[in-house]
Design goal:
This protein is α+β, with helices and mostly antiparallel strands. The protein is built from nine helices and seven strands; from the N terminus they run H-H-H-H-H-H-E-E-E-E-E-E-H-E-H-H. Strands 5-3-2-1-6 form a five-stranded antiparallel beta sheet, covered by helices on one side. A two-stranded antiparallel sheet has the order 4-7. Helix 2 packs antiparallel against helix 3 and helix 2 runs antiparallel to helix 4. The chain is elongated, with a radius of gyration of 28 Å. The termini are far apart.
């Protein structure tokens, strides 16, 4: 038995050096956190940070599945690299007094096994979530917080659509909705517009018993109607963004915001 444990201890130390090398893990879990609001994923990243006693940046930027995939790939490669170094320890343990390495081995085994498990869990594609952490699904009604000319809060409505390039939001508006002085138009020519989904569009409702094809057909019919029509079709009280969105999803044009406004006036 070799009485000098320095080689074994150095290899344990080099394993830890690799683990923390270049702040790779810190950078990658920060990249993940910046590009998802999926609570399960964030909790997973926090568990990795706690395991390694590091801090990471959780400032959300935008939903981006590709950024998540790239970070997980880097993490997997990094963990494999660490394990390769750790394998170098094993041949030297037989000739070393266990008093020098038993606790180190137990701690390192548990640390790397847990890390591998957590990184593996990150391989699942994260949910697309809004700023409040609500999971977003195709056909959901979503709202964008806005203000009217009297600084009163209201919600601009849209419908989440799935495309080969990610989620988009279909929403109805008029080019005259916001006038230069900041007033909302009473009437205007209506347009159906599609915009990439962003986390600022907040979850409102998830319809049941409606197929994607039904909503798609209604939106197509609606767009054609607006193309063919000569009259102004936007009306703040009679047919606004919420009327349109609910009609596309439920088959009935309705604005709960307008109903609530009228109820307050009656009272």
């Amino acid at each position: 038995m070799n009485p000098n444990p320095s080689r074994v201890l150095r290899l344990f130390a080099e394993t830890q050096d690799r683990l923390y090398d270049g702040d790779t893990i810190k950078k990658m879990i920060s990249q993940i956190a910046r590009h998802t609001k999926d609570c399960k994923v964030i909790v997973n990243c926090e568990a990795i940070a706690d395991l390694l006693q590091i801090e990471f940046d959780q400032t959300f930027l935008r939903n981006d599945v590709n950024q998540h995939k790239d970070a997980v790939k880097w993490l997997n490669n990094h963990v494999t690299w660490v394990h390769e170094k750790y394998k170098e320890v094993k041949p030297f343990l037989e000739n070393c007094d266990p008093i020098w390495y038993t606790r180190l081995q137990e701690a390192t085994d548990a640390q790397l096994a847990r890390l591998s498990q957590l990184v593996s869990l990150l391989s699942a594609v994260p949910d697309i979530c809004d700023l409040e952490g609500n999971v977003i699904r195709p056909n959901d009604l979503v709202t964008y917080p806005s203000k009217d000319q009297e600084d009163r809060a209201y919600n601009h409505y849209g419908i989440v659509r799935a495309t080969p390039h990610g989620y988009t939001v279909a929403h109805f508006f008029t080019g005259e909705t916001i006038r230069p002085e900041g007033r909302i138009a009473e009437v205007g020519i209506g347009y159906v517009h599609f915009t990439p989904y962003k986390a600022e569009w907040l979850f409102k409702e998830r319809p049941e018993s409606i197929s994607d094809s039904q909503i798609e057909a209604r939106i197509h019919e609606s767009r054609q109607k607006f193309i063919d029509a000569k009259d102004k079709l936007w009306n703040k009280l009679l047919y606004n963004c919420e009327h349109w969105a609910r009609e596309m999803v439920y088959g009935e044009a309705r604005s709960i915001q307008v109903e609530n406004l009228r109820a307050k006036k009656v009272v």
